[in-house]
Amino acid sequence: MSRIEQKFAQLNEQGKKALIPYITGGDPKPEYTVGLMHALVEAGADMIELGIPFSDPMADGEVIQKAHERSLAAGTTLEKILEMVAEFRQTDADTPVVLMGYLNPIEHMGYGNFAHKAKAAGVDGLLMVDLPPEEADNVAPLLKDAGIDMIFLIAPTTTAARAAKIASHASGYLYYVSIKGVTGSATLDTDAVAEKVAELKKITSVPVAVGFGIRDGASAAAISRVSDGAIVGSVLVKKVAELAEQPDQIAAALQEPLSEMRTAMDA
Amino acid sequence: MTKANTYAELMQLPDDRGHFGPYGGRFVSETLSYALEELEATYKKLSADPDFQAEFDKDLAHYVGRPSPLYHAERWSRMLGGAQIYLKREDLNHTGAHKVNNTIGQALLAKYTGKPRVIAETGAGQHGVATATVAARLGLECEIYMGAEDVQRQSLNVYRMKLLGAKVNAVESGSRTLKDAMNEAMRDWVTNVDSTFYIIGTVAGPHPYPQLVRDFNSVIGREAREQSLAQTGRLPDALVACVGGGSNAMGLFYPFLGDESVAMYGVEAAGDGLDTGRHAAPLCKGSPGVLHGNRTYLMQNHDGQIIETHSVSAGLDYPGVGPEHAYLKDVGRVNYVAATDVEVLSAFRELTKVEGIMPALESSHALAYGRKLAQTMSPDQQIIINLSGRGDKDIHTVAGIDGITV
Ligand SMILES: Cc1ncc(COP(=O)(O)O)c(C=O)c1O
């Protein structure tokens, strides 16, 4: 069983849902990321999505675009992201880490090389925004051999037939994108999400986590009632942006909204 | 399998998943998958529909003004003393460049699919103008994304787009040029996918865009092939076109791919020089990767980050290139070369003075290389250079280099 599967099984036993924060690795500077990851876990994160910065984050709104820019300007590379995960793993063997980003840096490193290094670092899953299952033939078997789950996205525009196909390739969890749009935009329609997630649950046993548009305790709780987990990104990354010049205060600033979400979800 | 066979087979690409060998494909976020599948199905149906083709041809004839002439630049050819140079006059199209061939086609697709709104990215502004033009004609809402830097150096085209009723958004992210405009257009499309048709301006992007943009522009090569046969009794020895994303080049090359005797040259922007790092020549100097929905050659660093490009011409200032070109490079069908800013400006001035034709700076890349190539050939040989657009939009840039404010 992968670390992600174990985590969902364990939460299931406890009658809890997964709280999955996203931060961009290396934002505002590479040396702060591992500390922030531990702080997220302390505040109630069950898993962490760690963003790999990319020069052209096409699917992200302004908040996360800026995070990628800050991170790259501070010298973050994919190699360094993997080092961060390895360092995090030295003191946390339980919390799954999913790398999230765009395909090109991974392709450039070489899929075999990446799979090998990611496994060694203790990465549990990979979510590439611009890699649908149809294009994943080169990389999927290598990740599978390395025991790394491939997380795929399902969108409001995904047809039932396509969803079934995507689900058949997925492991770890499915990421349901709650809105048509980029990260950090619009507000969420919980009823519409509930309906879609219910349809997905009929065709797959892979857990379904929901992201985009979750910003506080209420929205996290609402989403976790109708799915297996809530993914929260832009709200946290905005805090990092605000405190980029006072990095010592970032951890506490991330913990506050996250704890609120944890409490609301567990209530 | 003979070589001729292989060449003819190149015309069968892409495969049904949009791949040209290892290149192309559909690397997009899931929200767009449905829209692209829908577009692919629509295009498949309409491209086989005689009524659609008839409407497209009619618009090209009566609105764009096709066929565009194949002009024998006799004076310039004589002066250079080499091969006879023929210019395919895409600069004479309505709106002043080849870009309109594609926007007419895609706007018809938008009309047939009932989308009330179109968006586009633009570099030099030619594609933005061509999009705003067809949107005005069809009464479609139109929004254009343009890098903030390009908004400055192509202010004339920005104003043209506004006059045509389009909203022009200056993109401030990243390097503030064409690639960032494309990122922003993708973000708009993801957000408004139900109401919006994205008119991509070159043979890049996710499948089926590289194919359909090529098909709409291949009228250039079909005409040139017929005109060459009619005017000279034979096919040209070589074709030359500039390559930004690669749509004017693909449009010229495609109908000749199976003609083994026809050599082809795609000319990238060497900017300050290919060895300076300040250029926009992914085929000459880049490596394969994935950007903007397809796998192709890219300008990227050791970490797979896309790097900034440099060219005197906004329309070539792009770190990627259409995936079909990537494949044609690998199989050796097309030679990819580059021209520096200095060579380009010299060719711009020369054609203007010698033939009374003021070319776009993008097209001047093809002229700069074509001039060199012609000089290595004999006067009984002939080459076609694609004059992809006219130079009016670049007068500010050239005057600025001369230290003149106009
Ligand atoms: C006149 C002209 N030629 C060429 C290009 C480059 O595009 P492509 O390589 O797609 O033909 C542009 C782009 O703006 C252009 O305006």
In short:
The complex is a heterodimer of chains A (267) and B (406). Chain A is of the alpha/beta class.
Task: Outline the secondary-structure elements.
The complex is a heterodimer of chains A (267) and B (406).
Chain A: H1 3-14, E1 18-24, H2 33-42, E2 48-51, H3 62-73, H4 78-91, E3 97-101, H5 103-109, H6 111-121, E4 125-128, H7 140-145, E5 149-150, E6 152-154, H8 160-169, E7 174-177, H9 190-203, E8 208-211, H10 217-226, E9 229-232, H11 234-242, H12 250-266
Parallel strand pairs in A: 1-2, 1-9, 2-3, 3-4, 4-5, 6-7, 7-8, 8-9
Chain B: H1 3-9, E1 19-20, E2 23-24, H2 30-47, H3 50-64, E3 70-72, H4 74-80, E4 84-89, H5 99-113, E5 117-122, H6 126-138, E6 141-147, H7 148-153, H8 155-163, E7 167-171, H9 178-191, E8 196-198, H10 209-217, H11 219-232, E9 238-242, H12 247-253, E10 263-271, H13 282-285, E11 287-291, E12 294-298, H14 323-330, E13 335-340, H15 341-355, H16 361-375, E14 382-387, H17 395-401
Parallel strand pairs in B: 4-14, 5-6, 5-8, 6-7, 9-10, 9-14, 10-13
Antiparallel strand pairs in B: 1-2, 3-4, 11-12
Bound molecules: pyridoxal-5'-phosphate.
Description:
With 267 residues, chain A is of the alpha/beta class. Helix content of chain A is 49%, strand content 14%. The mean pLDDT of chain A is 96. Chain B is α/β, with parallel strands linked by helices and 406 residues long. Chain B has helices spanning 3-9, 30-47, 50-64, 74-80, 99-113, 126-138, 148-153, 155-163, 178-191, 209-217, 219-232, 247-253, 282-285, 323-330, 341-355, 361-375, 395-401; strands at residues 19-20, 23-24, 70-72, 84-89, 117-122, 141-147, 167-171, 196-198, 238-242, 263-271, 287-291, 294-298, 335-340, 382-387. In chain B, the strands form four sheets. Chain B has a six-stranded mixed sheet with strand order 3-4-14-9-10-13, with helices on both faces. In chain B, helix 5 (99-113) packs parallel to helix 6 (126-138), helix 5 crosses helix 10 and helix 11 (219-232) crosses helix 12. The interface between A and B is large, with 45 and 39 residues. The structure holds pyridoxal-5'-phosphate (PLP). Pyridoxal-5'-phosphate binds at residues 97, 99, 123-124, 126-127, 202, 242-249, 315-316, 360, 362-363, 388-389 of chain B.
